Amino acid sequence: MNKLSMLLFATLVVLCLAHGAYYYPQLPDIVDSRFSLTGESVATMGKATMLGFYYGVVLLLGAMFLLFNYLTSRMTPARLNLPNKAFWMAKDREVQTRAFLSSHLLWLGSISMALILYVFHQSFQVTLGVVDRLPRMPWVLGAFLGFVVFWCLGLYLRFARTGGASSPATS
After folding, report:
1. What predicted TM-score, i.e. pTM, was given to this entire model?
2. Which segments of the chain have a pLDDT < 70?
3. CB-count exposure of residue 62 (10 Å: 0-12, 13-18, 19+)
4. Tens of pLDDT along 150-166?
């Protein structure tokens, strides 16, 4: 596993939790909680419920990514679904393959946590009257979806190839 990807993921989880704790005393008892496609608030909820939801999402997603990371490093090769699995899970490549998968999962977890942090931060800004609507949400969601598409494509391209001197995937 790549230590940088784990450090970034853990930092973002802690940052999300600290973010909620920082804003909680500043928020009114009722906060904006649901927004239209244009970013305008269309529903509210109690701030304790909102914080509970925020923490629940962060902790559940954090636990899921850590569990997937753990399972990826421990499950038998037969349970992994990879193109060219026999090649990539051969004894001389298995450790590097698992490390790549582990790191790759944590990068996806990190970008997911960054999205959650951004959305909740903007929601708090609307509630506090700093802005009147969620700014740039279509662009932010588009960037996230673009990242996920390239993440999946990169994963597939990495494992679609097998040996040979010209294959960059073996390095």
Report:
1. 0.87
2. 1, 163-171
3. buried
4. 999 999 998 998 865 34
